[in-house]
């Protein structure tokens, strides 16, 4: 109720007391400890490597729609593909497109058996020990035996909230560790730790949005699946809409775009899925993406700030990337202090100078970039950047991270 439904039924103090009582009982009667006990979420030993796990059904990714024209084209392809092949009305389910790490959780007879990353979609890494440290992942599904499927593969996204990402980066800066570029990288880096105690120390969360193989329960629509997942105690995000008209999808997109700034986690668009499974089957899949679903992306987020300096970052292969040192600014919740300028040609082409007010952009998962200077705000004393000579490079400063 606390981690999944966001609605605690008891106080933190009562919870702590019950937890300590359970620990006392398990100490006295170790034979009563099960792998699904809440005391067993942390404490597994570090691994030397992750095992590979093959997904029973491939984990697909989504086609990206970048404009309303592309959305219209997606609708047209869906209606054309279903023409004359279905009697049911065409409905879509809209959800959030999380900027996280896709995972699969496998529950056998209601117990968490294993969990894996998406990997290449066919094979992922076994991250069971780490997934167990995420409090919003149930170790045991809710409901009586009759209601719980024999086997259910649940798919979703592990995310890190923006406040936790910033806390983590502040801590890393203090310790002289490289910073994570964005919450998605921080979530991925935290989940892919061989030592589960490190994962446990980062506050990760999960939202689930679909299934792979399900044995012992037949579902006809995606919307019903989402409700069933909720009923099993799995965490489903509250922003979901069943759309009976194309215009409902556009309305959902616009309402989420408005909310985006105030969400505590990052999203990069909405996901649109055909609701009816028999219709999904008619449309089928391409090699890596389904024809019955797509991600309708938000435009890149932009903000203005002052370019304070340009430093030269030398990559592992010796390639020099000029990096913008910015007056720190927030861009959809995330503090931006560095951005890439790509290369000297780009700086010259865009006529970017030190001291300029610049437009900075973040698109999806990529490192922030300087898009252009705001010429009307150019001060008289701004400086031209010159590319470093090879001699300068041998002693060039290295920024901690973009
Ligand atoms: N919310 C949501 N995200 N997401 C990502 N649903 C969803 N579905 C996906 C993916 C890759 O894939 C299925 C449609 C196959």
Structural descriptors:
402 residues; alpha+beta; 5-stranded mixed β-sheet; 5-stranded antiparallel β-sheet; 11 helices; 16 strands; 27% helix; disordered C terminus; binds ligand 5U1
Q: Secondary-structure map with pairings?
A:
Elements: H1 12-28, E1 52-54, E2 64-65, H2 68-82, E3 92-98, E4 101-108, E5 111-117, E6 123-125, H3 128-131, E7 151-160, H4 162-175, H5 183-191, H6 196-201, E8 204-215, H7 222-231, E9 241-243, H8 246-259, E10 267-274, H9 277-283, E11 293-297, E12 301-314, E13 320-331, E14 334-340, H10 344-350, E15 357-362, E16 369-373, H11 390-394
The chain binds ligand 5U1.
Ligand 5U1 binds next to strand 3, strand 8 and strand 10.
Poorly predicted ranges? 393-402
Q: How many runs of DSSP E, i.e. beta strands?
A: 16
Largest sheet, spatial ordering of strands: 2-11-10-3-9
* Helical amount: 25-40%
Strand fraction equals: 25-35%
Radius of gyration using CA atoms only? 24 Å
How far do the termini sit from each other?
38 Å
Bound molecules: ligand 5U1
Count of helices? 11
Q: What's the average pLDDT?
A: 92
């Amino acid at each position: 109720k606390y981690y999944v439904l966001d609605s605690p039924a008891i106080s933190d103090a009562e919870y702590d007391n019950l937890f300590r009582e359970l620990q006392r009982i398990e100490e006295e009667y170790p034979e009563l400890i099960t792998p699904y006990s809440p005391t067993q979420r942390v404490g597994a030993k570090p691994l030397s490597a992750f095992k590979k796990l093959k997904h029973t059904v491939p984990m697909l990714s989504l086609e990206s729609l970048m404009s309303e024209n592309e959305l219209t084209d997606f609708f047209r392809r869906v209606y054309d593909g279903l023409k004359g092949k279905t009697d049911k009305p065409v409905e879509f389910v809209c959800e959030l497109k999380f900027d996280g790490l896709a995972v699969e959780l496998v529950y056998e007879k209601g117990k968490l058996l294993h969990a894996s990353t998406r990997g290449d979609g066919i094979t992922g890494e076994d991250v069971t020990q780490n997934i167990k440290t995420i409090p919003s992942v149930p170790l045991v599904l809710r409901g009586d035996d009759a209601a719980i499927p024999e086997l259910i593969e649940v798919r979703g996204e592990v995310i890190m909230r923006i406040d936790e990402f910033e806390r983590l980066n502040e801590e890393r800066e203090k310790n002289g560790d490289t910073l994570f570029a964005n919450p998605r990288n921080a979530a991925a880096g935290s989940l892919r730790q061989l030592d589960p105690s490190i994962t446990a120390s980062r506050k990760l969360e999960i939202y689930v949005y679909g299934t792979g193989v399900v044995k012992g329960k037949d579902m006809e629509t995606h919307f019903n699946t989402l409700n069933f997942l909720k009923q099993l105690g799995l965490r489903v995000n509250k922003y979901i809409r069943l759309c009976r008209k194309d215009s409902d999808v556009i309305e959902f997109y616009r309402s989420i775009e408005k909310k985006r700034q105030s969400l505590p986690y990052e999203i990069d668009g909405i996901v649109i899925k055909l609701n009816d499974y028999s219709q999904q089957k008619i449309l089928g899949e391409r090699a890596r993406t389904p024809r019955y679903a797509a991600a309708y992306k938000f435009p890149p987020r932009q903000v203005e700030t002052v370019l304070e300096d340009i430093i030269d970052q030398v990559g592992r292969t010796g390639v020099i990337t000029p990096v913008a040192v910015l007056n720190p600014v927030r861009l959809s919740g995330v503090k931006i202090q560095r951005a890439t300028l790509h290369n000297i040609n780009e700086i010259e082409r865009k006529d970017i100078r030190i001291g300029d007010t610049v437009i900075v952009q973040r698109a999806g998962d990529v490192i922030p970039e300087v898009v252009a200077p705001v010429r009307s705000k150019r001060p008289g004393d701004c400086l031209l950047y010159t590319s470093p000579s090879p001699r300068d490079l041998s002693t060039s400063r290295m920024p901690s991270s973009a």
